Amino acid sequence: MSQSISAPKRVIEWGDYQGVRKFEHPDELAPDMRQLLLKMLITQADTEFASVQQHRPWLDKAPTVNDRLTISRILADEMRHGWQVCQLLLAFEPEGQEAIDWLLQAKLGEHRLDSFNMGYETWEDVLAFTCLVDRVGIYQLRAFEGCGYAPLARAIPLMLVEEQLHINFGYNGIKRLARNPHTRDSAQQAINKWFPRALDMFGHAESKASESAVRFGIKKWQNEEARMQYIDEVRKLFESVELELPDPSRDRRIL
Fold first, then answer.
1. What is the pTM of this model?
2. Is 23 helix (H, G, I), strand (E, B) or coil?
3. Residue 2: inside a domain
4. Is residue 4 part of a domain?
């Protein structure tokens, strides 16, 4: 997937509102579009804050000083991304404020997506998560890139740049493990654990909400289209280090 970043355009580029100037406030949105966008923003913010909770213990436990520095950067990025989305939610008063109140008190085990309710038991978990699950996050952000809600479209470019650091860190760590015969098996086990959870994050293949998000100009791709792009990218990455990509249907909870 190309990682080039471009400035958002002023008009909606796809869907039912193609050619219309982008919306600047929730009050301008049709009710169905407003509710769908609100739901998606809440989920996005929830993943950012949940990631902070998952990574925080490893600020103290990461194996090297450089690893700890990277974890501190990831924590700062995820916290800022959550804050950015909360700023967008404020425009959805009073529902937005209610969502923010929930987001700021939600604990591990209470988050919307399974991947973000799982703690990291090992350093291999940290690396596989940042390689695989954070990579899904990039696909989700790219699906929002250029979206018809202008405040979100403006927030996406910087978030994408920062998320790239996370996936590079994870993949480089997995590569090091894979090239060491003593740690190769642990790398494969971590991939086997997190790959199904990463695929689940895209949502149901026949999701009506996903279809509506594309039609409203909120997202560029439906769930299954993005998931297939992701599988193709990850397969090539792991082939280069001779690791096996698990069967995409294995251990899945959301199909």
1. 0.93
2. strand
3. no
4. no
Judged by phi (left if over 0) then psi (alpha if -120 to 50, else beta), residue 7 lies in beta
Cα 108 from Cα 114, distance rounded (Å): 10
Q: Is the pLDDT of residue 7 over 60?
A: no
DSSP letters spanning 205-252? TT-HHHHHHHHTTS-SS-HHHHHHHHHHHHHHHHHTTT-PPPPTTTT-
User: Mean pLDDT, the chain, as a whole number?
Assistant: 95
Would you state the pLDDT for residue 255?
87
Q: Is residue 249 part of a domain?
A: no
**DSSP conformational letter for 147:** -
Q: Is 104 helix (H, G, I), strand (E, B) or coil?
A: coil
CATH number for the domain spanning 105: value is 1.20.1260.10
Q: How many domains does the chain have?
A: 1
The residue range of the domain holding 178 is: 27-239
CB distance 171 to 234 below 8 Å: no
> What local confidence, expressed as pLDDT, does residue 2 receive?
44
pLDDT at 85: 98
Q: Tell me the C-alpha distance between 27 and 54, whole Å.
A: 35
Residue 22 lies in a domain: no
Dist CA 17 CA 238 (whole Å): 39
**pLDDT score at 6:** 54
Torsion of the alpha carbons at 154, 157, 159 and 162, rounded to the nearest 10: -150
**Residue 122: how many other CB atoms lie within 10 Å:** 13
